Amino acid sequence: MRARRDVYQAIADPTRRAIIGMLAGQPQNVNAIAEQFDMTRQAISLHVKILTDCGLIFIRKEGRDHICEARLDSLSEVSMWVEQYKKHWESKLDSLESYLEQLKKERYGK
């Protein structure tokens, strides 16, 4: 049984995150993407396949070229997941800020 790939798997790898960043700026063919990395075109093609399987990249054919375009809607799932933890950490940081202000008043009377 083949494991289902998801957006979290896609963004787990720094090379794939870099590819997403490149394609968010403008569509590119696989060769242009591969030129930006110190790895084989075959390795880049595997990363592109994973990104395609996860729905973060769409590939269209233009003649002999395969043009990769970013489809970043799937990242909203990640954004919502991170948001819940952002609220948690903001609360913790607010508590820390209050504690530091209290210490400052106690020590320096300010």
Describe the fold and architecture.
The chain is α+β, with helices and mostly antiparallel strands and 110 residues long. The chain is 63% helix and 13% strand. The protein is built from 5 helices and 3 strands. The chain has helices at residues 7-11, 14-25, 30-34, 41-53, 75-108, and strands at 28-29, 57-62, 65-70. A 3-stranded antiparallel beta sheet has the order 1-3-2. InterPro entries: ArsR-like_HTH, HTH_ArsR_DNA-bd_dom, WH-like_DNA-bd_sf, WH_DNA-bd_sf. GO terms for molecular function: DNA binding. Keywords: DNA-binding. Residues 1-90 form the HTH arsR-type domain.
Mean pLDDT: 91
Shape: elongated
- Helical element count? 5
Class by SSE composition: alpha+beta
Low-confidence stretches: none
Number of beta-strand segments = 3
Strand percentage, roughly? 5-15%
Could you give the order of strands across the largest sheet?
1-3-2
The ordered H/E elements are HHEHHEEH
Q: Report the biggest beta sheet as strand number plus sense, adding barrel if it closes.
A: 3 strands, antiparallel
Helix content: 55-70%
What Rg is obtained from the alpha carbons, in whole angstroms? 21 Å
Span between N and C termini? 65 Å
GO molecular function, one term: DNA binding
Keywords: DNA-binding
Protein name: DNA-binding transcriptional ArsR family regulator
Organism: Dyadobacter fermentans
Summarize, please.
63% of the residues lie in helices and 13% in strands. The chain is α+β, with helices and mostly antiparallel strands and 110 residues long. It has a three-stranded antiparallel beta sheet with strand order 1-3-2.
